[in-house]
Design goal:
By secondary structure, this protein is an alpha/beta fold. The chain has 13 helices and 11 strands. It is globular and about 70 Å long. Keywords: Amino-acid biosynthesis, Aminotransferase, Histidine biosynthesis, Pyridoxal phosphate, Transferase.
Length: about 350
């Protein structure tokens, strides 16, 4: 049975978070002399001399309307990477605890674990890029605090079997983190709809992919109110800057435009797959629920270098287990995809 206090680090339980000026006074006033800001303004057109909302309420309110999740169940981070790091710092004791990763997967989970001195136990996906539930069960011990699952998975592009994820949620006493960075491109429904059912579930999403806001660095975590309170306790006081908050709000008003981009991306993905299949050096194209495809080739390094010489950059994933011989190709605009295919037709 999952109990948050059983996995929360003792120092975090006893932590008194930093109380910023904007935490101590919330509301509107005519004169602010509490935060040691520059009272004369900033040398920019916008008034960036004031500290931003530390809990980003307006952005969360808009996200709540879009996602159908209460504000109290939303955490915003400086990209999803900050949320990942905060999960390690909140629930994993350095040099003692461990987490389970299921490679091939997003590399930042392991990097963040190493930074925090947390042991990683790796249970490779099956040949079909699905969870090895028996292998995961064998690796879980009393010090296993987190399991990271990327779905749709990066770099393979496929969605993870939903029943398998629910099996972990029902049987693991730690936290299951489902990273849904590419969920907007997927046929599978999001796990945020299951938050009320699973108190040990954390869902990560981002504005960097479908929403086209990678430069703003705004990541989201959805979880129980208890877990969100812990993450807010641990995060830096002003982790999302004012310009990112304002631009995110502006972007979140354009849901229809983003939905049209998603439809176009999916159509271009299908067209790209058909074009690549005609190339004799392409051995396989794995099914994708993301805005990229994993392509197995006869000569990944040669193809990669050839494309670089032509000013086209893809990602060589051929050295990753289960991805041998493969290149990861992001779906571009129609013009970019056409340039890619025309160029590849000249590869010898």
């Amino acid at each position: 049975m999952f109990n948050l206090n059983n996995i929360l680090r003792e120092n975090i339980k006893n932590l008194t978070p930093y109380s910023s000026a904007r935490d101590e006074f919330q509301g509107e006033a005519s004169v602010y002399l509490d935060a040691n800001e520059n009272a004369f303004g900033s040398p920019l057109d916008e008034p960036y001399n004031r500290y931003p909302d530390p809990l980003q309420y307006n952005v969360k309110k808009r996200l709540s309307e879009i996602k159908g999740v209460p504000v109290r169940n939303i955490f915003l981070g400086n990209g999803s990477d900050e949320a990942i790091d905060i999960l390690f710092r909140s629930f994993c004791n350095p040099g003692v605890d461990n987490v389970i990763l299921v490679p091939p997967t997003y590399g930042m989970y392991e990097v963040s674990a190493n930074i925090n001195d947390i042991k990683t136990k790796k249970v490779s996906l099956t040949e079909e890029f699905q969870l090895n539930l028996e292998g995961i069960a064998e690796e879980i011990d009393q010090n296993t605090k987190l399991i990271f699952i990327c779905s749709p998975n990066n770099p393979t592009g496929n969605s993870i079997n939903r029943d398998d994820v629910e099996t972990l949620l029902n049987n693991f006493d730690g936290i299951v983190v489902v990273d849904e960075a590419y969920i907007n491109f997927s046929r599978q429904k999001t796990f945020i709809q299951e938050l009320t059912e699973y108190s040990n579930l954390v869902v990560l999403q981002t504005l960097s992919k479908a929403w086209g806001l990678a430069g703003l660095r705004v990541g989201m975590a959805f979880a129980s109110e208890e877990i969100i309170e812990v993450m807010n306790k641990v995060k830096p006081p002003y982790n999302i800057n004012e310009s990112s908050q304002q631009l995110a709000l502006k972007a979140l008003a354009n849901v229809e435009q983003v939905n049209n981009w998603i439809k176009e991306t999916l159509a271009q993905r299908d067209k790209l797959v058909l074009s690549l299949k005609d190339l004799d050096f392409v051995l396989d194209i794995y099914p994708s629920d993301a805005n990229f495809i994993l392509v197995k080739t006869t000569d990944p390094k040669g193809i990669y270098n050839f494309l670089v010489q032509k000013g086209i950059i893809v990602r060589d994933r051929s050295k990753i287990d289960l991805c041998e011989g493969s290149l990861r190709i992001t779906v571009g605009t129609p013009a970019e995809n056409e340039i890619l295919i025309d160029t590849l037709k000249n590869f010898k």
